[in-house]
Amino acid sequence: MKKEDKSLLIEQLAQTLGEYPHFYLVDVTGLDSATTSALRRECFQNEIKLQVVKNTLFEKALEKVGGDFAALQTALKGNTGIMFCQTANAPAKLIKKFAKGHNDMPGLKAAYAEESVYVGADQLDALCAIKSKNELIAEVVSALEGPINGILSGIDGGTTIHGLLDAIEEKNA
After folding, report:
1. What is the DSSP string of 59-128?
2. Could you count the other beta carbons within 10 Å of the beta carbon of residue 138?
3. How many helices (H) and strands (E) does the chain have?
4. Domain holding 86: CATH number?
5. How many structural domains are present in the chain?
6. Residue 82's CB: how many other CB atoms inside 10 A?
7. pTM for the full model?
8. Same domain for 106 and 142?
9. Dihedral angle, C-alpha 57, 59, 62, 63, nearest 10 °
10. Would you call 145 helix, strand, or coil by DSSP?
11. Separation between Cα atoms, residue 127 and residue 113, nearest integer Å
12. Is the torsion defined by CA of 17, 20, 22, 26 positive or negative?
């Protein structure tokens, strides 16, 4: 590969790193072409960009972006696929689901999610447990919805607002 091509690829990787807040490093060693195609299809359906690059080029792209990615150095060995995503837990769930039917492949090497570095395949369950922004919003909305529904049902039941406020006051006392 020519030096100009390498620098162009590094630029493209740095740009992709800027577009996606989360990325996973996965071991794609041993994946045949049919399995790789199936993995790419699954990634596309889950809005995850999968790219296989040389480790040294990815290291240079990380340097170009800046930040503390030193912990990822140990994971950048062998054949590495990079999963870029907008939702922090999407690749973890995909890896877990996909690996069940494909001899535990691909294997998680490391991840950068929610501004934290996770190294090792044992971190997969922790990454699956990360809640997305939409999941957190849904939890807050449902927590707020309960008391509001109680007040509305009290009003619908014919209770006056004064009676409802008295009941709330007694409950808090």
Report:
1. HHHHHHH-S--GGGGGG--SSEEEEEESSTTHHHHHHHHHHHTTTT-SEEEEEEETTEEEESGGGHHHHH
2. 12
3. 7, 5
4. 3.30.70.1730
5. 2
6. 22
7. 0.75
8. no
9. -100
10. helix
11. 8
12. negative
Strand, helix or coil at 24? Answer: strand
Q: What tokens appear for 103 in the block?
A: 């001899």
Question: What is each CA distance from 94 to 40, 46, 57, 109, in whole angstroms?
Answer: 11, 8, 25, 14
Are 80 and 10 part of one and the same domain? yes
Q: How far apart are CA 80 and CA 27, in angstroms?
A: 5
> Are both 118 and 165 inside the same structural domain?
no
The reply to whether 92 and 138 lie within a common domain is no
From first to last of its 173 residues, the chain has per-residue pLDDT tens of: 788 888 899 999 999 999 999 999 999 888 888 888 989 999 999 999 999 989 999 999 998 888 788 888 888 988 889 999 998 889 999 998 888 877 767 888 999 988 888 998 888 888 888 877 777 788 888 888 877 776 666 666 656 666 667 777 877 76
Token reading at 26: 């996965």
Name the residue among 118, 154, 103 with its Cα closest to residue 22: 118
Cis bond before residue 106 (omega within 30° of 0): yes
| Residue ranges making up the domain that contains 80 | 3-130
